[in-house]
Amino acid sequence: MACLRRTALTVLLISLWGGPALRASIPIPNEAINFKALGHWPNGACYAVEALGHTMVAGNGAALEIVYAADPEAPVRVGRTVLPSEIYALDVAGAYAYAGIISYGLAIIDISDPDAPRQVSVHPVPARIYEIEVRGDTAYLAAGAAGLRIVDVRDRARPRDVARYTAEGSAFEVDLHGDLAYVSYGQGGLHVLDIGQPENPQLVSASMPWPYLTGMALADGYAYCALSNNGLGLLDISNPAAPQPVFNVPMYGTVWDVVLDGANLYVAGFSSGFNVFDVSQPAQPVHTGGILYPSSMKVAIGDTHLYVPTSPHGVQILRIDGTGLPVELGSYDEGGHSMKMDLVEDTAYLAGRYDGLRILDVGDPGDIRELGRWPVYHARDVAVVGDLAYVAAQQDGLWVLDVSDPSAPVGIGHLPSAYAAGVVIRGSVLYLADRVNGVLSIDISDPTAPVIIGSYLTLGETLLDIAMRDSYLYLAYGQTGVRILRVNTPSAPLLIAHLGTGGFSQSVDVQGDLLAVAEGDPGIRLFHIADPASPIELGRFDTKGNAAGLDIQGEHLYVASYPYGLAALDISNPTAPVWTGTFDTAGTAQTVYARQNVIYLVDMEDGLWILDHDEATSVDDGTVPQRTLGFTAHPNPFNPSTRFAFTLDAPGHVELAVYAPDGRRVARPHLGGLPAGDHVLTWRGTADDGRPLPSGVYLARLVSGGAKALLKITLVR
Fold first, then answer.
1. Rounded to two decimals, what is the model's pTM?
2. Is the C-alpha dihedral spanning 442, 446, 447, 448 positive or negative?
């Protein structure tokens, strides 16, 4: 990262008593089919921060937040706006923040009123933006596999690409010095470009001084370089046409970025933590101190403080003492890696892997409010009964909290455990999934003193999830599949069935006689369990990505699958599940909770989404006209073509798209305007590129204005 300037706080006039921001429409991620976003609590990982004096502009999941931190022990958020996706890179120039948002590109935000920052535009970029440098009316983007992108931002409502430069590797950083841009290209080394004419960048040199190069800081003819697993390096760039390596200092972990602040060099990375070097003699750096954060990213320099984004742990606020030793002053942490949740009426209890228990009022999904939190480390699961919340907290065991006052949860009971990962409750017995040891049966009749009364031990295996129906436990054991225990005697759980896996059993759910298992990459499996001792496999479905969490709701199964978000399946016929909708998040979807048509989706980096599944009915087979649009397909089944018929009450924009069973769009027979009246469109069973599609069941979706319809069609070759 280029040396960050200590920018005077001349643009932002902070008002700590501003009123609440006006409510706006909810930005949604890449694709939403048959789902409507009702609300979004975007708190998540912090990857980027910029400093304006004592003010931070920070990413918190998908939220851009403006935080006044003159008192580092009590930072105050004064404004925020929610963007369509997680923030990974930031720069601030004048009254605007420029954010690289995952899966979208460059967002430009007007921060002239810090109480109410406002998104101005989003400029698409086809890869993750790792670094942004804005100079005047031009933004330089290090955009991974898409290389260096140069964007004209003088009209911030309509940015436009003016040039790009691509080479082997991924562009991780761009630093500007005069008319030169220095681009770190990972395994492609260092590329120096002449940008005297931004619309026509010219290569000056490309060198490979070390195997991998991620971050840089330039000063006085030198470039300090972050070398990933190879530590810290120094390049002599006095001749940009021929950079020469000077030294390489090995360091533990992955060194990701470097920032220069006078004679101090700040080095950040993963596992390597945050480190300080005295570089008053550039060729002889002296390590003066460090703090071992699990993850530290791009350091920002304020007037008197440093701001270090530490991914799931928010922003750490530091100062450097007279000996070069970093001293922690405070932190700002509003995010965390959300894992699982429980819902009681209009209150959501969210277990955060690094963030403890968060208690949210979700009565108005468009205005989700945090009521309180419990700061236990590594919360993995939570179950709430009455005024008590039972939290599985990894190595911190099982906690019992009194949540009668959600604003001030109080720990009243605790039971040590090697790795508490999941919890279910039946009466006065709690069953704890201990990832290391197995299942523990715990008497909670006195919640202040929980007591183990039985166990099913599976040392050496990995227990990931637990579900219960009647007197039976269903356990997801990763690579060894699913086990079913009878617990009519809680003190003596008894194994009655063991199901192998074709993947990695991560999650289980039970409704009636149906068991659903999330298997990771292979998708999901469904079993008939009228006799739990003799499960019968009914069907499978290969979801996109890795199926991680699921919930059965009537004839629908909702699957959280990373990195793609949420998939809805019609399981009215469990031998042949049918995809009926998708909601792509920008992070790592973990868990889904369904309450009739309202779906709560928990994402590690993207927070909590509240969704309306507006197609929560069985999918039409296409032979009977639907009330909406009169949409039919004939013939069905078909070979080689079928005719889609529908009626428009008024002229309008129409999209007709065809989806594979896993939710991938495979064809778009029509996109554009049509007049009012009856219409017939023929589809010949081919993809958009003309390739014939294989036999199988597909879904045709017609959308016009606010009306939409979904048909199941069958191609038989």
1. 0.78
2. negative
